[in-house]
Amino acid sequence: MSSHAQISHTVNRRRVAAATIIGTTVEWYDFFIYANAVALVFTKQFFDPAGGSVGQLVAFASIGLSFLFRPLGAFLAGHYGDKIGRRAMLVATLLMMGIATALIGLLPTYAQIGVAAPILLLLLRVLQGISAGGEWGGAVLMAVEHADPKRRGLAGSFPQLGVPLGMLLASGVMALMSGVISPGAAFAEWGWRVPFLLSIVLVGVGYWVRRSVDESPVFQEIAETKQQTKLPIVQLLKRYWYLVLLGALVFAGNNAPGYMTTGGFITKYATKDLKLDQTDVLVAVAVGSAFWFIFTLLSGWLADKIGRVRTYQIGFVCSAIAVFLIFPIMSSGGVGMLYLALFLFSIGLGLTYGPQAALYSEMFPASVRFSGVSISYALGAILGGAFAPLIAQAILDQTKSTTGISVYLFVVVVVGFLAVSVIRDRQGINLSIKNEAEQAKGATIFEKSGARKGQDSQG
């Protein structure tokens, strides 16, 4: 490769990295401001007839509702992503998420239009779920399939960084509205709407950035050789269902603890149960997201140094310890202890999130890869995060203690640890469609390996 071509290749990889980070940040900002709003205002604004703790449970259930539609988004985006390309799906899902989020900011409340308000809110949340289910697979494949094979772990962590960045941005904007621009009654009246409407600007930026990157080289190769699978999802579920299941269980182990923060439960517990200041809690959650960002980036680097599976195992051990520490630490003092609890919690979350893109991409053959990573992710989100805040709230209401919540999270983390330990680390496998036969064998430790480490010249 000439020096000019090398420079062009490097510039394109940097552009892809920027596009995946910015795009997923916008996507998850949209998704997470809903969870913050549920914890702070939506119970009263949209679910008022249920009242009290029942209204809070219904509000948290609305978070989980969107997860039930993630597989639909994953099926649609996976099917078309394996047939017409990764980039087209990234743009489509971003626009869907942005439009749904902005419309939430314009919705009348229950006091204004009655039962139509929560119905419309839930319909828009469903659209958010479909978008989130389809977006992730395209983002990670753009990052991983463009990457230098020796740095796939780090490159794959870039779209993962959009999640803590999206949470940081969502919590930060909510804190600004709650504590500075529209404090007190003004926040409940109109201030909560501004973060949703801001999505219009952010989506415009994300759209422009994503349109500027080249299609994945693996998909370009698939299209040029006309090797698109006619029904990729059917092929996936027929031949690789067990990989989808393992991938889902791995993500569930990360997602259940993660949705204690991103799903709004910790925000609600700290403000309503521990009586901490609302703005202080939002700022603490934003800082916790910054810690999560750091450990996610670190884990991408570690995944290239010690392997994807080993990094995951270390992270799950950290999470198994943290789930028993977070609530006692939060309850032992003021906001300072909340910062400490969120810092400890973020270690395991980051270490079990950064390697996910590389691990998943190296599990599935090229022709069904978009479908494989997307559906594994969507099912894992249902098994892990979908109703984690609802389950945690129900346990708290029944037992008046957080111990049961910690036990529940510990069990899910252990399942994730066992699932990832069954997957073979295929760091360095050639991701090209030309290597499909090798990719189709040996993805678990119970199969004879068809891949030879370090042989990838693609990328």
From TrEMBL:
Domain of life where this protein originates: Bacteria
Primary subcellular site in the record, as a coarse category: membrane
UniProt cross-references to Gene3D superfamilies, sorted A to Z: MFS general substrate transporter like domains (1.20.1250.20)
UniProt-listed InterPro entries: MFS (IPR011701), MFS_dom (IPR020846), MFS_trans_sf (IPR036259)
UniProt topology in membrane: Multi-pass membrane protein
Residue ranges constituting the Major facilitator superfamily (MFS) profile domain according to the UniProt record: 16-428
Any one of the GO CC terms: plasma membrane
Compartment(s) where it occurs, according to its Swiss-Prot or TrEMBL record: Cell membrane
Keywords: Cell membrane, Membrane, Transmembrane, Transmembrane helix, Transport
Pfam family, one: MFS_1
CDD domains, per database record: MFS_ShiA_like
Transmembrane segments: 16-42, 54-76, 88-107, 119-144, 192-209, 240-261, 281-302, 314-331, 337-354, 375-396, 402-423
GO function term, MF aspect, one: transmembrane transporter activity
Stored PROSITE patterns: MFS
Protein name per the record: MFS transporter
Source organism per UniProt: Galactobacter caseinivorans
